[in-house]
Amino acid sequence: MSNIELNHTFSGAHALITGATGGIGQAIARVFHAHGAHVHLSGRRTDVLQQLKDELGQRCDIWPMDLSDRDSIHSAIDKIQHEKIPLNILINNGGTNKNSLALRIKDGDWDEVSQTNLSAPFLLCRSLFPLLKESALADGGYARIINISSVVAFAGNVGQAHYVAAKSGLTGLTKALALEWASRSITVNAIAPGFIATPMTEDLDLQAWVRKIPTKRVGTPEEIAFAALFLADARASYITGQTIHVNGGLCMV
Ligand SMILES: NC(=O)c1ccc[n+]([C@@H]2O[C@H](COP(=O)([O-])OP(=O)(O)OC[C@H]3O[C@@H](n4cnc5c(N)ncnc54)[C@H](OP(=O)(O)O)[C@@H]3O)[C@@H](O)[C@H]2O)c1
After folding, report:
1. Looking only at Cα atoms, what is the longest distance across the chain?
2. CATH class of this structure's domain 14-246
3. pLDDT in tens, 66-80
4. Which atom of ligand 1 sits closest to the CA of residue 163?
5. Model-level pTM greater than 0.85?
6. CB within 8 Å of 31: residues ≥ 6 apart
7. Can you give the pLDDT at residue 5?
8. Cα–Cα distance between 253 and 131 in angstroms, integer?
9. N or C: which end of the chain has fewer CB within 10 A?
10. Does the active-site annotation cover 142?
11. What pLDDT does 130 receive?
12. Which member of 163, 191, 240, 244 is catalytic?
């Protein structure tokens, strides 16, 4: 919980966070919870979800789902809708890469990476729209969708054709939904992290990347979480369809 100051900016808000078992997702969950939000944690590893729920205590629920499996997503969405969660904030953070040069990417890996990083966020946005709209239209209400994209959606990357394509698609989805749903007081934005120290990057030669990063270090999960906090704030209502780049200056667009 380093660098997380407690306050109640998000008191009464409900945030669903996918990928909440991972490095960035856990940081987002902790930061939003510390700011008073009720956090709804999603991921596949139920033991890790339960550990985080035990750590956070009240104002926390878990909704296991497999983002690569439409039936699993629909089943979790049905339960969330049944509970009529007054959802304000949807953070599509869950993601996977199956690094391989393009010529060696297997059909199954292409499908899994596309489904998890792009199709699943779309399904969640579309299905949870009614709950978000209701929160947005309530007196003093608002709703936010935040999609976690990647620097590689803007810079490309070797060995990640499927991941780059999916994250680029997520950027496009962000813009399209922002246009369609601005009139419903739902903002839709993205965050494009650079290289962040999490399990996803632990096998990479991060020092080689650090030499290319102007700040000469990789980012922390909390630095992504604070960008999400900014976009989710009720006062950020004039920001939509945008991508915030959190990459230490690695890529400027
Ligand atoms: N770390 C970076 O440098 C970096 C850079 C740019 C973008 N990103 C993006 O940031 C997001 C979070 O990544 P991270 O760095 O925190 O990685 P991470 O620690 O590996 O976490 C990935 C998360 O995604 C979830 N996930 C993966 N496949 C899933 C599936 N089929 N169904 C449900 N959940 C699934 C994992 O949950 P389970 O393990 O419980 O299934 C886990 O919670 C991802 O979208 C990633 O693409 C990361």
Report:
1. 53
2. alpha beta
3. 999 999 999 999 999
4. 47
5. yes
6. 4, 222, 225, 226, 228, 229
7. 63
8. 34
9. C
10. no
11. 97
12. 163
